[in-house]
Amino acid sequence: MTRELKFTSESFGIGNAEDDCYLDPNDPIHEFLITGNAHGLNRPKRISVVEQADNYQRKLQIAKAQGIKPGSPAWFML
Q1: How far is it, in rounded angstroms, from Cα 4 to Cα 41?
Q2: What is d(CA 72, CA 20) in angstroms, rounded to the nearest whole number?
Q3: What is the model's pTM?
Q4: DSSP 3-state assignment of 57?
């Protein structure tokens, strides 16, 4: 059983808009969501502990060479 969803600007409390749209139940996005390909789109990047340590050491070396102190605004731009 397919369910039809209709979202309008009024659904979000912003009044009428000319660009209200209708998402057809046959739209390929539904298949994309069902197959599970969309689950990783909004997830944080997974980094190993070793890679995190390497990145930190790299930052320390650059900071030492340029005289940047840890915690300063310049440190967070590295």
Answers
A1: 24
A2: 46
A3: 0.40
A4: helix
9-29 tens-digit pLDDT: 666 666 655 555 667 778 777
Tokens 């390497």, residue located: 54
Which residues are bridge partners to 5 per DSSP? 23
Residue 56 to residue 72: CA distance in whole angstroms: 15
- 16 CB contacts (<8 Å, ≥6 apart)? 9, 10
Amino acid at position 35, single letter: T
φ/ψ bin of 18: left (φ > 0), alpha (ψ from -120 to 50), beta (otherwise): alpha
| Cα separation values, 76 from 63, 70, 71, Å | 10, 8, 7
